[in-house]
């Protein structure tokens, strides 16, 4: 057996070596006591840091970690992925499931003012908000070769991140672990989850207490999810029954991969797009502020005109102006690019020139096999869901029912292919704040369980539109109670 090189070190050099390793660890983890824009000390424990993954740890993934405000020793440990791919997780931190909200139109410390979010998931879970993959948010790479990522690379690196995170935070080793996220993250969430189970099987250290996964409006089967947009548009009365049926017939039910030489199908799709062109694909009840919607070619979200804050808004829009939800994201961009904010978060100097809500060099659009910094090399992650049905595993899949980007129709279609048995409920209402919050169906197979729930009135990023309903849903699910 090869001797441990530390055994041959003089004691003084061994001590120096230990101190250097410890110093590196400290530098990578920062306890943040205050944040620009928020008055006084933070009433929750926030840690930021980096964990290196991939070959030679060339990819440095940045994270925000908020310990549970409930019972951190026992509450679940979850990682949240914002999707895109390439969308910074501050979107979740401020707009979806995080402990803070932006006070629109108010400023403090020369940045947008912050306030606490009463529906933060950190009240019931230890949450890691992860900037992944590669050049997402504040994450960076040490070599140009490591910049380009892919579905498979992203999943592998995130699984590696989670194992290293609990290695560096051993007090959370026993907490139930869940992989969670939204939108395009639906491709990688089951892959990461299976990778963690598989790593445990192979004896990778440390063994993690992976219990399952959760995904909101998850892109999963890319072709099937895109195809389901037509049926969804018909169901919510955006296109007529006649147009839906003739398009389905002429295109043989396949719109995403429709033959461009099939002229009648192309004409039908043009007619469909004329009907929905001015509808917001991410929340059909919101005003449409982006370019015309195309049901076949519109890719994953990230408001196109608000990814950069070239002219950040300084006040609330007037009551007479059109409400554009994407404009609110400019506040996050303004906050995240402030030097005082980066210093408070201990962002490594010189690693990020500009924080972007979403990295457009990764953004998914159907029909493109790759972008300059990302390869979309998994067409469907259903096979990974199928593998997980043989595990001792829990899953929660939820869909805002006003989302036409990844409609609940397509999500239900791929869930049906898992050949699970319906157990406790079949499209039954569940309630929050005394009101119908959506509908749930529960499935099972041996030690695997899956709950599918709609969120009534919510769009693509459901917790952004219905925060209290989504909070009640996950609070019950984490506690192993019926939602």
From TrEMBL:
Record-linked Gene3D superfamilies: 3.40.50.12670, alpha/beta hydrolase
Keyword entries, A-Z: Carboxypeptidase, Glycoprotein, Hydrolase, Protease, Signal
InterPro entries linked: AB_hydrolase_fold, Peptidase_S10, Ser_caboxypep_his_AS
GO biological process per UniProt: proteolysis; secondary metabolic process
Gene Ontology terms, MF aspect: acyltransferase activity, transferring groups other than amino-acyl groups; serine-type carboxypeptidase activity
Matches recorded under Pfam families: Peptidase_S10
Top-level division of the source organism's lineage: Eukaryota
Signal peptide positions on this chain: 1-28
Family to which this protein belongs: Belongs to the peptidase S10 family.
PANTHER family: PEPTIDASE S10, SERINE CARBOXYPEPTIDASE, ALPHA_BETA HYDROLASE (PTHR11802:SF382), SERINE PROTEASE FAMILY S10 SERINE CARBOXYPEPTIDASE (PTHR11802)
Name by which UniProt lists this protein: Peptidase S10, serine carboxypeptidase, Alpha/Beta hydrolase fold protein
Source organism of this protein record: Tagetes erecta
């Amino acid at each position: 057996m090869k001797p441990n090189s530390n055994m041959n070190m003089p004691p003084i050099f061994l001590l120096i070596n230990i101190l250097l390793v410890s110093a590196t660890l400290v530098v990578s983890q920062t306890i943040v006591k205050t944040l620009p824009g928020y008055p006084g000390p933070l009433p929750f424990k926030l840690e930021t840091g980096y964990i290196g993954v991939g070959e030679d740890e060339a990819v440095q993934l940045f994270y925000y970690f908020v310990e549970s405000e409930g019972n951190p020793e026992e509450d679940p440990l979850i990682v949240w992925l914002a999707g895109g791919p390439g969308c910074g997780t501050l979107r979740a931190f401020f707009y979806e499931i995080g402990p803070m909200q932006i006070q629109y139109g108010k400023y403090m410390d020369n940045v947008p003012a912050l306030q606490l979010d009463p529906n933060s998931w950190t009240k019931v879970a230890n949450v890691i908000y992860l900037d992944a993959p590669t050049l997402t948010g504040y994450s960076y790479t040490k070599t140009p070769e490591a910049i380009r990522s892919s579905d498979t690379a992203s999943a592998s690196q995130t699984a590696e991140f989670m194992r290293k995170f609990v290695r560096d935070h051993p007090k959370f080793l026993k907490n139930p672990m869940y992989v969670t996220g939204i939108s395009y993250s639906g491709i990688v969430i089951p892959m990461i989850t299976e990778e963690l189970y598989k790593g445990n099987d192979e004896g990778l250290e440390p063994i993690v207490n992976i219990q399952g996964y959760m995904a909101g409006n998850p892109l999963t089967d890319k072709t099937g999810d895109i195809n389901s947009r037509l049926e969804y548009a018909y169901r919510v009365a955006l296109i007529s029954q006649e147009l839906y049926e003739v398009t389905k017939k002429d295109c043989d039910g396949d719109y995403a991969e429709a033959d461009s030489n099939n002229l009648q199908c192309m004409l039908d799709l043009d007619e469909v797009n004329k009907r929905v062109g001015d509808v917001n694909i991410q929340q059909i009840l919101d005003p449409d502020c982006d370019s015309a919607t195309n049901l076949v070619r519109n890719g994953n979200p990230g408001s196109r005109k608000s990814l950069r804050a070239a002219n950040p808004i300084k006040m609330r829009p007037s009551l007479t102006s059109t409400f554009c939800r994407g404009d609110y994201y400019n506040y996050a961009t303004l906050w995240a690019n402030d030097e005082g904010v980066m210093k408070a978060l201990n962002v490594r100097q010189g690693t990020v020139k500009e924080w972007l809500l979403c990295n457009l060099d990764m953004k998914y659009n159907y029909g493109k096999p790759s972008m300059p910094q990302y390869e979309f090399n998994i067409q469907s992650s259903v096979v990974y869901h199928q593998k997980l049905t043989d595990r001792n595993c829990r899953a929660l899949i939820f869909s805002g029912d006003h989302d036409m980007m990844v409609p609940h129709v397509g999500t239900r279609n791929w869930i049906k292919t898992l050949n699970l048995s319906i157990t406790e409920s079949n499209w039954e209402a569940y309630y929050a704040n005394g009101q119908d919050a959506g509908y749930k169906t529960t499935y099972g197979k041996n030690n695997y369980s899956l709950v599918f729930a709609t969120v009534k009135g919510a769009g693509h990023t459901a917790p952004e539109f219905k925060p209290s309903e989504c909070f009640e849903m996950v609070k019950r699910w984490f506690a192993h109670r019926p939602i």
